[in-house]
Each structure stands twice: as C-alpha cells, then as structure tokens.
Amino acid sequence: MWRCHSLRPLRLCRPRLGPVGRLRLPNTPGPGQPPGAYLPLRLLSSQDVGLDKTAVAAKDKEGNTSVFLLMRSLWPREASHQGRIGFAVVGLVAGKALAILAPLQLGHLVDALGSGIEALPLGLLAAYGLARLSTSAFNELRAALFATVSQSSCRALARRSFEHLHHLDTSFLLSSKPGALNVVVNRATKSLTQVLNMLLFNVMPIAVECAMALTVMASLAGPGCALAASSTIALYVAFTTKFSNHRREIMRRSNRAEEDASAVFFDSLANCEVVKYFRGEAQESRRYDNALARFEAEQVAVLHSLAKLNFGQSVIVVGSFTSILALTSLRVLNGDLPVGDVVAIHGILAQLMQPLGILGGVYRVTTQGFVDLGKLAAFLQQEPAVPPPPGGGVPFEFKGGGLEFRDVHYAYAHNTVLAGASLAVPAGTKMAIVGPSGSGKSTLLRLIYRFADPQQGQVLMDGQDLKLLDPLTFRRHLGIVPQDCSLFNDTISFNIRYGRPEATDAEVERAADLAQIHQQIRSLPEGFGTPVGERGMKLSGGERQRIGIARCLLADPSVVLLDEATSALDVRTERALAAAMDELMKGRTCLVVAHRLATVQRCDVVAFLEGGVIREQGPHEELLQRSEKYRRFWEGVPAEA
Fold first, then answer.
1. Are the C-beta atoms of residues 534 and 376 closer than 8 Å to each other?
2. How many CB atoms lie within 10 A of CB 182?
3. Ordered structural domains, the chain, with CATH
4. Distance of alpha carbon 23 from alpha carbon 117, whole angstroms
5. 116 secondary structure, DSSP code
6. pLDDT at 189 over 90
7. DSSP 424-486
8. pTM
C-alpha cells in the first residue's frame, strides 16, 4: 500500500525540509473562516477571475508544486512495491539497449548479404530476432511489474479523497455539486497512474534511448550525423512543448465544460420528481443539451489543436529524415560509408522517432494529469470551516448528557439566527424548542453535533466545551431524527442498522416494531432486504421518517435530538407512534424541535425561541398562562397541530 501520512486533511512533507506540515493554497479558508469562502475545485485561469497571464502562470506553478508534493506523499514505502519499481526500471534500460542493438544487427545483415556470401547468416538473423523479441519481453515485464504499484496508488488516492470529503464540514458539502466532485476525483485517480507511467516509463526511456542512439550514430557516421539528429530532437521537443502549453488552456476549458455537463446530469436526476411535477422533461433535456453543446465545442477545439500539433511534428520529422538520408547517401556514393550502416542509422532514427512521436502525447497527458491532480490537490487542502480541536481534542467524559448554550451567536452569511441564546437542558430532561420558522431552532441541533461553531458563546455537553472535545467521543452519545430523513441507496435493514452496525436481526426488527413500521416491511416481497432507492425515494415521507426513528431507537443514544421528527406523519400515525416516541425519550436527555402540540405536551419544559434569543421557558401550561407571546404563537398554529 501507498503510505498516507494522515487520513485528515492532506499532510505532506515540506519541500527541502522534511517535517510533516500542512500544505495550503492561497485563498483557502483558515480555521474559523465563514462557510462559503472556498477555493474553487480547479486551477484558476485568466478567464475565471480576470488574472493576467503572469498571475495565471504563478497559479499554475504553485498548483504544480502542490501536485509534486501530493505524489511525493503517495510514493510507496513498502519494500515489495519499491522492489517492483526497481525491477521495472532495470527492465526499461535493458529493453532500450536491446532496441538500439536490433537496427545494428540489421545493418550487419545487409552488409553480409551484399558481400557475396552464399550461406544465409543465421547467427545475424537470430541476433536480430532475439533483440526484437527481448525488447518486447522487457517492455511487457515492466508493465506487469508496475501494474500492482499503479493500481495501489489509485486506491490510496481515491480512499484519501473519500475520507477527506467526509472530514469537511457539511456546509461545504451541501454547497458543492456531487457530479463535479465525482468527476474531479475519478479523473485525478486515473491521471495519477498516467502521470507516473509517463514520467517513469516514457520520459526517462526517451532520454536514455536518445543518448544511446546519438552515441551509436556518432560512432557509425561521425559527429555531423549525430549533430543533425540532436538538432532535430531539440527542435521537436521545443515545438511540442510550446504548442502543448498553448493546448493546456484549451483542455482546461474542455474539462470545465465536462464537469458542468456532469453536474447538470446529476442535479437533474436528484430532482427527478420535481421535473415530473412541473413537466420539466423538455426543459431538462435542453439544459443538458446546452451543457453538452459547450463540451462538444471545447472538444472540437481540443481535436483541432491536436491536428495542428501532429502536422507540425510530422514536418520536423520528415525534414530531418530527408536531410540525414541525403547526407548518408552522399557518403555511400563517395565510398565513405557502408550501405549497412545507412540502414542501421535510419533504423535507429525510425526507432527513435517512435518514442519522440509520442512525446507530444506524453506531454499532453502529463500536463493534463497535472491539471487534474491540481484540482484534487486543491480539494485535499480544503480546510473545514469548523476547525478540528487542538491535538485532535480530549475524550468526552459522559456525566448524564446535560446540554447548555451560553450566550450563543450564530449567523448564516448576513442572516443572524441566534443573537445571544442561553439555554440549559439538565440531564434526563425532555425540552421542546418552539418558535417561528427561521428562528434558529434547527441551528441549535447543528451546533450540538458541531456541524458549525457559534461565532460567539459556548455550546457545552456535561459542562465540557464541544470545541475542545474529540467529536467522535461525544457524537456516540447523540442520536437524531431529522426533519427530512435521508437514507442510503441500500436495503431497509442496512439503513436501520446504520446507527449500530453490529446489531442482530432481532434487534433491528424490534426497533422497526417500536417505530410502527415492522408490519409494512414484512408485507414487502423482500422484507428487510428491500432496496429503498436513491435517498430513500422509493418510500413515502412517513415511511422514511419511521425508518429514521427506528435507526435512532436501535442506536440507543443517551441524548436524543428530534428535529420535527413527526412532521411528515399524519395525526393518526403520530398518535400510533406515541408509544415509540415515549420509548425513545425515556430516561434520556431530549431536545425536541416541535411544531405540534402533542409533541410539546410530551416534554417536561418548553423553550420559546424568537429573534435569536430564548424569550420564555417553562412547562407548556404555565407558559400559556403567563406569556402572551407564547399563547399567540400557539393560536397561530393550525388546529391539527
């Protein structure tokens, strides 16, 4: 396996030094910065932000540095992988040496046949065939040895990307386009293998083969021939590099167009029901086709530029071959050079032009790979808006599950939702949070899970500041039934068991029974093995909500958070669930965001949240008597509630 220094945000070795440190790109939000100020998941171009070419070049150089550090961190540390790379390099050098030997044997064969011999020179024929066969054998051996290493690198990078994705805050994930993220990660993992292959088994072999070929040509036809060949190589490389740099921005535009088309595709599928509600099939088809048209235009530009590059390379190669052929032919006519050497020289040139012929492709793939890896490097350096606690945080010490908000302030962009909210929920207390829509009720629950941090104030659990705790140690005591239960595209059993994967089938069935959905599940042909579809869309809203309740029941948390957990249920079903809700809340600290009177009456205390602060607090009946605002709030709620 490749060595990953950390499964948290990417940690790499600093250039030239060596101690482990965090790599950051400009404009990347630091700890505590508000959600939204994120570096785009692609390298910048002048068309993106109005930068001039010098600024873009600086961004590219910085991005390439990040890519080199990324690849360095993925370099294999296991002896078996390093041994494979070593043997692959040995096979590479041996294959190139034999590749140069084959044209020499062909030249000797031509001279032998032209000398008037009567017997076929079997030794020269065998040597030529063996050289060709050995070259192929060493090349295939090299590919086989490196296959394990390259696939291991893909797996390591894909896993690191996936783990980093889940390490980021939910604000970033919800604001990102899943389709575009998927394209970035998939393309980068593929590009990593391509870049490693190109650098190790194309760039280095071309250099080795050129050095060997020029040495042999100088020994056969003198320094003039070698100088002509080396000039051709230099001109070819310079032209290819310059033109490929021009194509780099064209390929970037094509990539962006592909990502945009993918994002439209995923977005449309995710909202398939909305499309059908509003008869938007034709509109979605046009939207996707417009994105595809942009991608098509950019791809045509890529192919046109490729044709120009290939033609320019052909002009250089044909001109070189013709010039060297004329030079060596004159020497043959003058009696200075055997015909066999001319055949050998042109065999070497033809063989040399094969790797040089793919140099443009090597450069294109490598530069494109750096573009793709640069996007992923920027993503892997993305810091979460909620910074990790110092040193990973201290373990949470459970003391009953009491919750407290102390003068909490929180705002989304310029919209303040909490403006000094203070609230204490003693351990074992069932507290309902009520208030107008948008007053910050659900935000309180997000702060408890530390999906966000208050801009001011503290959130505590059992007297311990959540900012200082290891999140995994306090989240294991929390359970939640959100307003909209999101389910995995898996079976009902998988989704209920997600809160406690080691639970037995009997425990899963009991949780479903308590959540009043056991009989419905049993009536399905596949029972608990029934797939629920993308985000659980094969089920009704009420069914998804009851599976969410069953999941929370099975997890058996010490602190239960209910975010309008019965909002998707009708009154009759909610009454049927009363026993399950009582079971879920029994003996636990409960904080319930509620809009229905039945839910409020199930709680010991009610906190009335309005204008970002707790206006009133106390038992429901008491608040109705002493608080006009609270009474007016319930008078405005539909009678069904």
1. no
2. 14
3. 60-380 (1.20.1560.10), 397-635 (3.40.50.300)
4. 70
5. T
6. no
7. EE-TT-EEEEE-STTSSHHHHHHHHTTSS--SEEEEEETTEEGGGB-HHHHHTTEEEE-SS--
8. 0.62
